[in-house]
Amino acid sequence: VQKAIDTLAAFGVPSEVHVFSAHRTPVEATANLAAAAEKVTATVSQGSNGFFVSCALDGQRTSTGDRKGWKVPAGQVGALTFIYDTPVTFNRMDLYPTGEGVSFAAQFPTEIKISVASAETPDEWRVIYEQSGIARPTTEVPVLRFDSVTASRVRIEISGGSLSVELCEIEIYNDDGSIP
User: Residues with Cβ < 8 Å from 2, sequence gap 6 or more?
Assistant: First the structure.
């Protein structure tokens, strides 16, 4: 990963851009498409105390001491971009909050935007879902549903106004109604 960061710096990519990359194999139609991304980039991440970009994509739906999730510092908008070699079709995104008990979802985003782009026009983002003024979830994992879309790039942007925000896990699906 350090070599990738050094390479990005050589091309003038700002140091605040974080990259998590792993070669993934194709997944079944009902599988978590976030896990199939060839590369995931983040505009910002705390990067310490159990909060790392990779923790939001590790399949672990609850926070633990050393793997809590992804955290965006206070007052900032954080974006994760999932990049696929082959376009994926999806219509659902599940956002697992951090914490448990009384601290469950204590730092859940109050604003969420999901956008897509193609490999041919990677800088032309089209918003497919946007919500602000989101109330703190109490016990349920928020499931965002929208019309099916096919794209090579998927971006989720989150913020909490003047507060930091956290997500334990992000999952993306093409749900035909059979995924719980």
Answer: none
Coil, helix or strand for 60? coil
The answer to whether the predicted template modeling score (pTM) of the entire model surpasses 0.90 is: no
pLDDT of 30 reads: 62
Is the pLDDT at 145 greater than 70? The verdict is yes
- Among candidate residues 76, 6, 66, 11, the one with its CA nearest the CA of residue 42: 76
CB atoms within 10 A of CB 116: 21
Partnered with residue 86 across adjacent β-strands are none
- Which pLDDT band, with edges at 50, 70 and 90, does 126 fall under? very high
Both tokens of 103, joined, read 């601290």
81 closest CA partner among 122, 48, 111, 120 = 122
The whole-number pLDDT of residue 8 equals: 44
Burial of 75 (C-beta count, 10 Å sphere; 0-12/13-18/19+): exposed
Give the CB-side neighbour count of residue 27, counting CA atoms within 13 A. 22
State mean pLDDT over 79-106.
96
Nearest to 152 by CA among 123, 178, 175: 123
